[in-house]
Amino acid sequence: MTGFPCFRMLRRWGSGHRRDLPFSARASGGNDKAVTPVDSNLSDVGEGPGSSVTRAVWARVMRGAVEDAVRAYEAMAAGHRDRVLEEALVVPAATRAALVEVLRQARDFAGAAQLLESDGDDGAAAPMYEQAGAPLLAAEAWLRVGEQARAAAAFERAGSLEQALVLYQALDARESLAQLLGRMNRPLEAAEVFRALGNSHAELEMLRAVPADDPQRPEAVLRMSALLDAEGATWRALVLLADGIKHATGAGLVLLQAEQARLLRQMGLASPPEGAIAAEKAPPVVDGYGYLKAIPIFDGLSLEDMRDLYRLARPVLVPAGTTVLEKGAKGGGLVVLLEGMVSVSTGPGPDARQLNMLGPGAFLGEISLILDGPVSAHVRAHTVVRALRVTRTDFQYFLETHEAAALRIFRLFTQSLAERVRALST
C-alpha cells in the first residue's frame, strides 16, 4: 500500500496541516501505483478494484443501489474502506461521483472531500472537510475557489490565526479582525479597530487587557479614562488614573497626571483623594460580566472564553415602552438586563396577560442563541432599560471559533432543556 498512504492517515489528522495527498494533481493522473479500473463485470482481479474485499461496495455503486452500497461500506473494516477510496481515483468520473454520494450518506465526509478535491471540485470539498472536522483543509479549499471570508473563518477555527488575519485585513472585515486581534493577545491593535467601529464596550475590554508593564499602558489608561468619563463614571476614571500613576514614568506619567488634574477640576476637587476613598466613592461597576457569567449555559467556561464572549455583547439603551423582544419574531438573541425593568407578557396587544416583571441580572432569549425559533413571549421596557445583547450571528461566530466552549455550552443546553421538559411533564 505504499502508493496510497493518505486514507489511513486521514482518520487521524484532525485539524492538522495538509499532507501530501497522492491525488493532489487530480484523479486518474500522477499516481505512483497503477490500479486496475473497475470493469462492468466486476471480475475478481486480485488486489484491484472489484476484488473480493471491495466488490460488495463497487457492485452496488455500479447498479445505483446507493442505500445498499452505504450499508456495505459502513460494514467494511477501515483498511478495506481505504482500499475503496484508493480504487476510486482511477474509475470513471460518473462512478466516482456516485461513490461520493455513498460516502456522504455513510458520513465518511473526509473521504468524500478528498475525492471531490481530486476532481477539482473544491467548492463542494470545502464544506465536506468542515463536516469532517478538518478546518485547515477546508480553509485551503475555500481559498482555491476564491471564498476568502469562508477561508478566513476556517483558518481561525483551525488555529492558523496569522493566515486568518491576512485575509480579514484584505477583506476589510473589521469586526472579525478586531475579535481575532483580541484572541492573538494584541489588545491595543484590537482596541484601535473597535474604536473605529464605534464599539466602546469592546474597546474598553481590550484596553483593560494591556499589561501593566507594557510601554503603551499609559496610553491605554488615558483612553480608558476618557471612555469612563464619557459614560459618567468619572470616579472610576480617577481610580484608574491613580493606579496608573503609581506604575508610570517619564512622559507617560506626565500625561496621566495632566488627565487626573483635568478630571479633578471637573469634579471640583483640589487634590486627588486617597485611593481607598476614591474607590469607596466610585459607584459599583455594573458592566454585566458577572450577570453573563451566571447564565447556566455558560457555567464552566474558562476565563478566556468568558472574556471573549463578553466582548461580543453590545450595550443597548431601551426607552420605556419600547419592545425589547417581539413575540413570534426570530433572531432575538440574548438580552441581559443591567438596569431598569421589563414586562413579559403573552403578546403585544392591550388584552395580553402579564407573565412577569424582570430587573437587573435577568436574562431573556438564551434559547434563540442555539435554536433559531420564534420568541415565545413579548418583552417590553417598563422603564428605561440598560442591557447587553448578544446576537445569534455573533454567538455562532463564538461557537465556531471556540470549540471546547461550544461543547460545554451544548452539553449544558441539552441538560437545561431536559430539565424543562421534565418539569412540564410532572
UniProtKB/TrEMBL annotation:
Gene3D superfamilies reported for this sequence: Jelly Rolls
InterPro entries linked: cNMP-bd_dom (IPR000595), cNMP-bd_dom_sf (IPR018490), Env_Response_Regulators (IPR050397), RmlC-like_jellyroll (IPR014710)
Region called Disordered, residue ranges: 23-47
Transmembrane segments: none
GO (cellular component) term, any one: cytosol
Residues annotated as domain Cyclic nucleotide-binding: 297-416
MF term (GO), any: DNA-binding transcription factor activity
Protein name per UniProt: Cyclic nucleotide-binding domain-containing protein
Annotated source species: Corallococcus sicarius
Taxonomic lineage: Bacteria, Pseudomonadati, Myxococcota, Myxococcia, Myxococcales
